[in-house]
Amino acid sequence: MNEFGNPRNDVREALARAGWREDSRGRLAAVDGTVWAEVNDLRDSGLDAPGAAWSVHFDSDVPAAVIVAACLAAAGQEATR
């Protein structure tokens, strides 16, 4: 469950459809361990690689399609329409 009052449900729903699962901290994780999470109540979010080798920050005005595409690419998944 998301702890912020204005969640990025657009991103959450798209990643859930792609098989990402919510963990106990409210983050969505791909099978390979790539994680996307909201980082504040302003709708900013971030994408982390497995083992924290790298991370990407998305400001709140980044479109959901861009965030989802980046998440899927990071996890080695193909984007579908």
Distance between the termini: 26 Å
What's the pLDDT, averaged over the residues? 89
Question: How much helix is in the residues?
Answer: 10-25%
Low-confidence stretches: none
Number of strands: 5
Q: How would you describe this structure to a colleague?
A:
The protein is an alpha+beta fold. It has helices spanning 9-17, 64-74, and strands at 21-22, 28-29, 35-38, 45-48, 55-58. The longest helix has 11 residues, at 64-74.
Keywords for this entry:
globular
Any chance you could write out the topology, listing elements then pairs?
Elements: H1 9-17, E1 21-22, E2 28-29, E3 35-38, E4 45-48, E5 55-58, H2 64-74
Antiparallel strand pairs: 1-2, 2-3, 3-4, 4-5
Helix pairs in contact: 1-2
Write a concise synopsis of the structure shown.
The protein is of the alpha+beta class. The chain has 2 helices and 5 strands. The termini are far apart.
